[in-house]
Design a protein that fits this description.
The protein is an alpha/beta fold and 336 residues long. The protein has a single domain (9-309), classed as Rossmann fold (3-Layer(aba) Sandwich), CATH 3.40.50.970. The protein has eleven helices and eight strands. It has a six-stranded parallel beta sheet with strand order 2-1-3-4-8-7, with helices on both faces. β7 (205-210), α8 and β8 (235-240) form a beta-alpha-beta unit. α1 (9-34) runs antiparallel to α10. The radius of gyration is 20 Å and the shape is globular. Bound molecules: thiamine diphosphate (TPP) and magnesium ion.
Length: 336
């Protein structure tokens, strides 16, 4: 793909830096999981980073995102402190959710990150509701809602898309189609494989994009975000990508549902290496520049691990905190 004129050399390098940060952060998560520093479920997005990095590069800082349990890279790229993300994974009090949410429930309202959701597709109506709220209150924010291709067969997906199209809501639905829902391929679970086609039922704009190409994702989501921001209209984007690891850290990389050859073939499209090669062929960065970026992000990841490891666990009394929410914000009714 040609380099879009709108991106400066620095902006290209920044995109590559974010891809590298996501990759190095999650490689370290895998190590920390093996060392039992991280417990519970842990789903890595290694191989899929171009979707979140490309999509988020089109946002303003106060825009909102919702995502599934495969959420570490999304949170960091949207602005969460990597140390607080790692601390959450470690179950520490300094974590984004005070160690009570864990890997699947990263939440950082200050950066517009409204979860981290473990129930497949459950956040699609929530994202639709927040898009409704921004429109209702005439606020300029848009919402990006990320989910896997297995979520498009649940009822809430269809109910949400119908309402978003009917009420013209500023929501961009981004399907991270990595071809598998745990060990079930899309061919075994879905009547149609062309996920973007689902938008036709709701007369909604849609695009299919190569989710292993960060610039292609950026362009596609950029169009959708502009449509949402200027005309308050939703879009469904299918980003075709691939996860290089197992479904979660407790699953094998290949399992019985895909072959080693398939994984190796997909790794040839590694979005991080591919973008580096693209930039290096254009003279934007060389091997030494890549090594410097890698050193920079490794320092950030090292510091995140140190911070998490040195942080205290939440006190036992925290079990009783945040169970019920206090009423707040513009919807709070005055108490009698
Ligand atoms: C409602 C619901 N049903 C089943 C599960 C168990 N489950 C966890 S992840 C997953 C697969 C989801 O696949 P996909 O949406 O493609 O996302 P990916 O893991 O590939 O990112 C399933 C079935 C769940 N969490 N929620
Ligand atoms: Mg999937």
């Amino acid at each position: 793909m040609d380099r879009p004129a709108t991106l400066s050399k620095e902006a290209h390098v920044e995109l590559l830096r974010k891809l590298l940060l996501g990759r190095r952060f999650e490689e370290r998560c895998a190590e920390m999981y093996a060392l039992q520093k991280i417990g519970g479920f842990c789903h890595l997005a290694i191989g899929q980073e171009a979707v979140s990095v490309g999509a988020m590069s089109t946002l303003e800082p106060d825009d909102y995102i919702f995502c599934s349990y495969r959420d570490h890279v999304h949170a960091i790229v949207k602005g969460s402190d990597p140390g607080r993300v790692m601390a959450e994974l470690f179950g520490r009090d300094t974590g984004l959710s005070h160690g009570k949410g864990g890997s699947m429930h990263l939440f950082d309202a200050d950066h517009g990150i409204l979860g981290g959701h473990a129930i497949v597709g459950a956040h699609i109506p929530l994202a639709t509701g927040v898009a409704f709220a921004t429109k209702y209150e005439s606020r300029p924010q848009v919402v990006l809602c990320f989910f896997g291709e297995a979520a498009v067969n649940i009822g809430a997906f269809h109910e949400s898309l119908n309402m978003a199209a009917l009420w013209k809501l500023p929501c961009v639905y981004i399907v991270e189609n990595n071809r598998y829902g745990m060990g079930t391929s899309i061919e075994r679970a879905s009547a149609i494989y062309d996920v973007a086609q689902r938008a036709c039922a709701y007369d909604m704009a849609s695009e299919t994009v190569d989710g292993m190409d960060v610039l292609a994702v950026r362009e596609s989501v950029g169009r959708a975000v502009a449509l949402a921001r200027r005309e308050s209209k939703p879009t469904l984007i299918e980003a075709r990508c691939y996860r290089f690891m197992g479904h979660s850290m407790s699953d094998p990389v290949h399992g019985h549902y895909r072959t080693k050859e398939e994984v190796e073939e997909q790794k040839l499209k590694d979005p991080v290496r591919r973008y580096f090669q693209q930039l290096s062929s254009q003279g934007i960065i060389d091997q030494a520049g890549l090594e410097q970026l890698n050193a920079e992000v490794r320092t950030i990841v090292d510091a995140a691990v140190e911070f998490a490891d040195a942080s205290p666990e939440p006190p036992a009394s925290a079990l009783y905190e945040d169970v019920y929410s206090e009423p707040y914000g513009p919807y709070t009714r005055s108490q009698p």
